[in-house]
Amino acid sequence: MKRIVFFTAMLYVTTLTAQDSIRPLLTLKRAVAIALENNYDIKLASNDLKIDEQNVSWANAGMLPNVSATFNQDNAIQNSTQTRSDGTVQELDNARNNNRNYGVNLGWTIFDGLRMFARYDQLQELEKLGQTELKLTVLTAVSDVMTTYFDLVQQQQMLKALDTAIVISRQRVTTAENRFTIGKAARLEVLNAQVDLNTDQTNYLRQKELYRNTKTYLNELMARDLATDFVVADSVVIDTKLQLADLMALAGQQNPQIQIALINKRVAELNLKQVKANRYPQIAVTTGYIFTESENSLGFARENSGRGFSYGLSASINIFNGFLQRRNERIAKLQIDNTDVQVKQQAQSVNSQLMAAYQTYLTNLELVGLEKRNEEIARQNLDITMEKYRIGTITTLEVRTAQLNYVNAIARNSTAQYNAKVSETTLRELAGNIAF
């Protein structure tokens, strides 16, 4: 009996494996690569970073001059009357007056209290902020893909366990029918075995539905055709050597949320420099080359034209603006204080999450070893129970209990492995260094 059940189950699993081989294998590395290439959130963050990169320029900081070309044309038609100093009067209806000027002008702020330099440094910090936000988006997307992938591995293992349960239940139905035929069992035993088989098939269908929905979600994370079919790996490898001190050290250097808080503090400091620049004079120079032309139908000068350079210097300084300068500086300093608090708060939060996640990680590692032993024990118990059932020394209830214990042991074992891998992934994400 034990050999029959074993070989029947192996045949069933082999058939499923053959069916899976028809579908392409999606490795974790490949899933992450597809997500990095297609994920919508990553694309949006990448475009935001490109905008930040374009903003880093001397012109955007106000360091370069402005050069503009101008052209003005004014025309008038008037009924004009002129009285000269000698009393002579001239009149002309529909007199035309045309004025035209054009040229090139240059304006350049040569000193603004060093605001332009602080602004340029701030633009560079905003570019770093965009890079860090992109890294955070990538880490989040990769973590989601990995967690969903490990979930599929767990569900795939559960499907195989339920397949095995169906094989055993079918064998029970066959055995019960044989025992009923020769008069060693009542019809109730056959009915109970058939109910258990139907229950196992229902559980399998529910698990298969969850498995397919999770595959759809993984395809969504990878931003590809949702109907793409695939299979995942049979198992996962868990890193059992992570150390909390190393993870905290990495988080202090690489965690994107901490880095974002630090960059925001630097941006606030540079904003204070720009506010203080209003205390200093603003000096600008202007120059240009201008052409002027005018035509008058009435008057001493019928035509007038000119050309040449123009240049000038302007300077201004804020003497009093209703104490707004003092107010703006105080607000800028308070913003720096807030960002400093946020840096400390974020570091504290990340370390707290790391400590909690690490304790969960250690617990899950212990559960992996425990549930693996439980699965082996449940398998041995099922073999012994099926052998006793064959010779009629135990009830069908005991057989069903052993069968459920075996399926549940497999489920707990795969769940423990999944939880341990998710804990590992969470720790690496918090440390800002996900490996796959």
TrEMBL record:
Location of the protein in the cell: Cell outer membrane
Main localization, broad class: membrane
Keywords from the UniProt entry: Cell outer membrane, Membrane, Transmembrane, Transmembrane beta strand, Transport
GO molecular function: efflux transmembrane transporter activity; porin activity
Gene3D superfamilies documented for this protein: Outer membrane efflux proteins (OEP)
GO cellular component, one term: efflux pump complex
SUPFAM superfamilies: Outer membrane efflux proteins (OEP)
Pfam families in UniProt: OEP
InterPro entries: OMP_efflux (IPR003423), TolC-like (IPR051906)
Record-stated family: Belongs to the outer membrane factor (OMF) (TC 1.B.17) family.
Official protein name in the record: Transporter
Source species of the chain: Flavobacterium cyanobacteriorum
